[in-house]
TrEMBL record:
GO terms for molecular function: efflux transmembrane transporter activity. The lineage of its organism: Bacteria, Pseudomonadati, Atribacterota, Candidatus Phoenicimicrobiia, Candidatus Pheonicimicrobiales. Pfam families: Beta-barrel_YknX (PF25990), BSH_RND (PF25917). This is Efflux RND transporter periplasmic adaptor subunit. Residues 74-173 form the Multidrug resistance protein MdtA-like barrel-sandwich hybrid domain. Residues 180-254 form the YknX-like beta-barrel domain. It comes from Candidatus Infernicultor aquiphilus. Coiled coil: none annotated.
Length: 347
């Protein structure tokens, strides 16, 4: 019994000592005059100038700028296939031919009729036959499928002897000289996105390489998927590699701001006091609270525009100065003098 009473007395005494040691007016402003802290050299950094870029991250998939399903405008039997999958073709090159015998005979028949009617036919008869000849010529021409643009044949869906109908896919062509990436950015981040901004592109297929791009298009209408609102963007890839394939996954960093030759500090070194950005500058091995003007931040580092100079030393982690109530240290690990670290605030 007496042992238990003794333990309780010791606990109460300990509480009173800690409370007397730490308790101050919670509204008292933190200044370098009422802070006494032993600084660990490992938590101090010397300011240097450097470069910083702020980015918005997103992802998407590689796709050619131009791609097309190839088909015939008429029905017929496949007579000849002049290309293979994976072939590079040029604009206007012949790719696949249909049997043209019937259409060729029809064209020659109408052409002969046109030559005769021009001699002694009426004006209306001549015009009508001329129109028929134009239609027959177009039908004959359409028996040969030509490349609409230069590119790469990625698929051939037919073989000689197959009968195809108008509009049926027979091949697929992509422009492998130009790629883009469709992506989406968060509605808040979208306010910082502008056309022509530089983009850093990383493809999973090339983990050790970076590619460059630019913002080509910014959507007008947002998209809402499960309550997440995004805005579509299109990223133009500056160069196309022969190894690129449609569908490659891409990680994107859109550069929305960047500076060079500026003082940089970790964001953990900056805290706010009375709506003023502050840092803890180390002077004579003691922290001195300094107001600063901050600039752009990339989420890891912040630019210091004014208040510090190159060569100054600051504390890397200043969270302990950010208006923390002294009482919070009572059970949060703060220790009286002689018992270890912690921030002490003088009355």
């Amino acid at each position: 019994k007496w042992l238990m009473v003794g333990v309780i007395i010791i606990l109460i005494a300990t509480f009173l000592v800690w409370n007397r040691f730490f308790k101050v007016n919670s509204d008292k402003e933190l200044t370098d005059q009422n802070i006494n802290i032993t600084i660990n050299p490992q938590t101090v950094m010397t300011l240097e100038k450097g470069n910083l870029r702020k980015t918005v991250s997103t992802s998407g998939y590689l796709q050619p700028v131009d791609e097309k399903v190839l088909s015939f405008n008429l029905n017929g039997e496949v007579k000849e296939i002049l290309i293979n999958e994976g072939d590079k073709v040029t604009q206007g090159e012949d790719l696949i031919k249909l049997d043209k015998n019937e259409r060729e005979l029809n064209y020659l028949k109408i052409k002969n009729a046109y030559e005769l009617i021009k001699i002694n036919g009426s004006d209306s008869g001549i015009e009508e036959t001329k129109l028929d000849l134009t239609i027959a010529a177009k039908s004959l021409e359409d028996t040969t499928l030509k490349a609409p643009f230069s590119g790469l044949v990625t698929d051939i869906s037919v073989k000689p002897g197959d009968y195809v109908t108008q509009g049926l896919q027979v091949a697929y062509l992509i422009d492998d000289s130009s790629y883009e990436i469709n992506a989406a950015v968060n509605e808040i981040d979208s306010l910082e996105i502008k056309k022509e901004q530089e983009v850093i592109i990383r493809l999973d297929a090339f983990p050790d390489r970076e590619f460059e791009g630019r913002v080509k298009e910014i959507g007008y209408y947002t998209e809402n998927v499960n309550g997440v609102v995004t805005l579509p963007v299109v990223i133009q890839v500056n160069t196309a590699e022969p190894e690129f394939r449609p569908g490659f996954s891409a990680l994107l960093e859109i550069i929305v701001d960047q500076v060079e030759g500026k003082l940089l500090v970790p964001i953990t070194a900056v805290f706010n006091q009375n709506e003023q950005s502050m840092v803890a500058k180390v002077v004579d091995s003691k922290p001195k609270l300094i107001p600063v003007k901050t600039g752009v931040s990339d989420g890891v580092y912040t630019v210091i525009e004014d208040g510090l100079i190159e060569g100054d030393q600051i504390m890397i982690n200043a969270y302990q100065f950010a208006g923390i109530k002294p009482e919070a240290n009572l059970f949060g690990g703060g220790m009286p003098p002689g018992m270890g670290g912690g921030v002490m605030i003088r009355k």
